[in-house]
């Protein structure tokens, strides 16, 4: 019995040692803090120009009515969509984040970019997809990063990465003048885009005092200072006015 017990104990020690050995390296210094909020819109909602897709019947057929420009998208609840919200500063100097393994996809579908505003981490893959099967030519007007211009004549995907933070990189199509989108490249995962309800959430923040910036392509930027301790959730609301 004693011998068997000793064997079992040795086995348990070995199992523990193996578990320690196979354990993944610790993730970057993430915390449990959350900053969330809404982006309100005040004033008269502007009328966006209609996009005439007559020359691209394949794209035109994907819409019931006539699509409109997405520069200003005011939601039914009076909030503003497509606002990029991110941690502009305040992360500890020791903070590092490796790029997620999976790509961020930018889809060209119905001769529009989906999403219209997006974020990516430094080193992460941007998968640029042509779902339309007609010629698109995506141009990234990057300044900190290397600009590019890719012709996509058919259904295909092209991959790109960015090696420096940059807010914002303007994306446009050289074939379709109405096609434009905005890409932010960040050295951390603390960013989001206000959606159809105007809300955003930044999760996993280490404790600290942060400058949160909200960026909109027409209405510019606003900032808020938020202090997060432990695993608490703080609210940061923004409000953009018509002009
Ligand atoms: Cu195009």
How are the SSEs placed, and which strands pair?
Layout lengths: L1 H21 L10 E10 L14 H4 L23 E6 L14 E5 L4 E2 L2 E5 L4 E5 L5 E6 L6 E5 L3 E5 L5 E8 L6 E7 L4 E3 L5 E7 L2 E9 L3 E9 L4 E3 L2 E4 L2
Parallel strand pairs: 1-16, 1-17, 3-6, 5-11
Antiparallel strand pairs: 1-13, 2-12, 2-14, 3-4, 6-9, 7-8, 7-10, 10-11, 14-15
The structure holds copper (II) ion.
Keywords:
about 240 residues, mainly beta, 17 strands, Immunoglobulin-like, binds copper (II) ion, four-stranded mixed β-sheet, single chain, five-stranded mixed β-sheet
Describe this structure in words.
It is a single chain. The chain has 243 residues and is mostly beta strands. It has a single domain (30-241), classed as Cupredoxins -  blue copper proteins (Immunoglobulin-like, Sandwich), CATH 2.60.40.420. The protein has two helices and 17 strands. It has helices at 2-22, 57-60, and strands at residues 33-42, 84-89, 104-108, 113-114, 117-121, 126-130, 136-141, 148-152, 156-160, 166-173, 180-186, 191-193, 199-205, 208-216, 220-228, 233-235, 238-241. Strands 5-11-10-7-8 form a five-stranded mixed beta sheet, with no helix packed on it. Strands 1, 13, 16 and 17 form a four-stranded mixed beta sheet that branches. The termini are far apart. The structure holds copper (II) ion. The site of copper (II) ion has 6 residues, from loops.
Compact overview of the structure:
The protein has 243 residues and is mainly β. The protein has a single domain, classed as Immunoglobulin-like.
